[in-house]
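MODEL INPUT / OUTPUT PAIR
PAIR INDEX: 1
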Amino acid sequence: MDLDALSPEKRALVARILKEQGERYNHFPASFAQARLWFIEQLNPGQATYNIPCALYLEGPLDIASLEWAFARIVERHDALRTSFTAIDGVPLQVVHPRAELHLEIEDRPTPVDRHDEVVVEAGTREGQRRFDLKKAPLIRAKVLRLSDNASALLVVLHHIIADGWSVSLLFRELAELYAAHRSGRAPNLPALSIQYKDFAVWQRRTLQGERLDAQLAYWRQRLSGIPEIAELPSDRPRRPRQQFAGRRKVTYLEPALATAVRALCKAEESTLFVVGLAAFNVLLTRYTGQPEAVVGTTMANRTRVEVEPLIGFFVNMAVLRTDCGDNPSFRDLLARVRTEALGIHAHQDLPFDILVNHLQPSRDLSRQPVFQVVFAVQNIPFGDMALAGLAARGVELDNGTAKWDLFVSLMDFGGRIRTTWEYDSDLFDDATIDRFAASYARILQGVCADPTQPILALPMASADERETVVDAWNRTAIDVPIHSVIAEVEAWAAAQPETLALVSADQRLTYRELDEGAR
């Protein structure tokens, strides 16, 4: 909702309340993205879906006093870390507090060295699943696990409403600089902040109106007219009536030779890793769904002004890429289409996804996300090894057991390797299905690196064993089977795999359990 959309009476009420509270607090409009997360929190209270958990494993003597000082300075420096949220007549507002104390919790967990990572992941996951109260600042937590005399872990959790991936990297860079400065007794070397996140939120709402808003909306309406409402990836279970956001994460790495070949293909085709990776992902989608168009969301840093680059805050925006794959183009032709799409969204990335959804008015379905359910991104900001004065530090991968989308695939090229992260809705997919998707994706990349002129339907996706199953086992015209009635077979499957899909029609899906219950 927009403050400008309120009636004159309600605007006057807001102004009066802000004036009365102005001596204690500063109230500002929430950005469009913040407003969306605030409304999601009202619909799904108590969930940790939008928590961002991070963990650093530290070797060496940790100076707790310097770490506490560094956190205090960061909270003072960034308004977003002193921000909570309230609402007036259902309109969310930022409340920027003059002070907010971040208490650094210390927990002693003596642990054998061979179990350090296991304990860090367990503790970090648990911290990541603790909810925040958006009405209370700060929306960041920090804890130190003392594992031994010479090893510890720093666990940090932020709510997405005040931070994004860029912010996390920025937070740890500034933390390292402040920690080192305090230990050595020097002044920290950090860039001055000319604005704060609240200023961005006010600017965003003032500028996104009139002709500028109309031009952005016209582009997106034209690009998304008649867009398919759902990507029908083959799932292991039907959708729940209401999305629960339960998820898991799987990390895979391309074989070194394949990673080298992918980089060479990017150079030869004058394309980025994002364009090549997304084009291959579109092949995966259209082959598995059977749909002629690939509709994929992606993340945009949305830091197009130099003033916001050093800020902690929730800037990231979502954009939609729609690619026609229905005429079986060559992979090289598909690359050109994806490149054109990518250039288009970069030129029109100022429109917040939330405004786009409100104007498109897609059919609402609590079982899935609107507009797109699958996301692809290339991460250019690794959270991993970093320097912390007097300490060896490395990032530890955490998973808070949630997923915002059916499937979120991200690539990262660092340290000579290309990493693929698969975050998926575990209510829909089993681990084995994601393993199959990941293996198919790698084979597609192998195929296009060998010959990018191949039609996309000719690209290899199946393993030798899978091809043998399709060609041989599935084409046998006569096999010996026990003689059972159909009802008995359904009952047997209902007992063995009750939640596996049994029947699929245009408007309905039934599991074996539902089919068995309906037959009784």
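PAIR INDEX: 2
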Amino acid sequence: MELSAEIGTLSVIVTRQPSEPMSTAVTEAARSLAAGLDSLFATDGGELRLTAVGRPVSRQSRLAVYLARRDRLWGSFEQSGVELPHGERYDRELEGDADELRFGGAIELASPNELPAALEITRGDSALVLGRLEHGKWDWETFLAVDTPEPKGVEELQRAAVGQLSDDLFAIRSFGWFDDVEVGSVVFAADHVLDRIESALAT
């Protein structure tokens, strides 16, 4: 994905051993990042939100529609065996294809300690973590419903997030698949935000 001149990236990478499970290595990198953000948030405030878009279901299937409306977004993740981070949950039905039903939402993480669980979800679903270094109002509903174009997959979600990054906002996704040796997390933000995060990681 091409980034604007104002936005850069910071990667937190670990080298995975051949016998080491992928999720273990990715979690190690996420914990390092969480520790750095925790120290920043302790002095400056800040917040993290796991933001996700669910898979669409056909409105032609009454059972599929019933289950989707019963479970909504986060319930569907739990039904699939996904371990969700602790925090206040929000979701809503998204407008889109008239023949499909889809939900999107956010979890305001209870603390940076929940970041590893949140980032594990970003590795395999249409999800990412959006954060800011100081507390402030963020319109997640408009972001998912309007700013993220169809088909609202990982690429569209990430592109929309990067387009929103200004001031102290940042976005994070984890990476690592199949037999990758170098795995971890990547932070997207303006240079001055990356500098503050990098300094926190170095302490």
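PAIR 2 NOTE: The mean pLDDT is 92.
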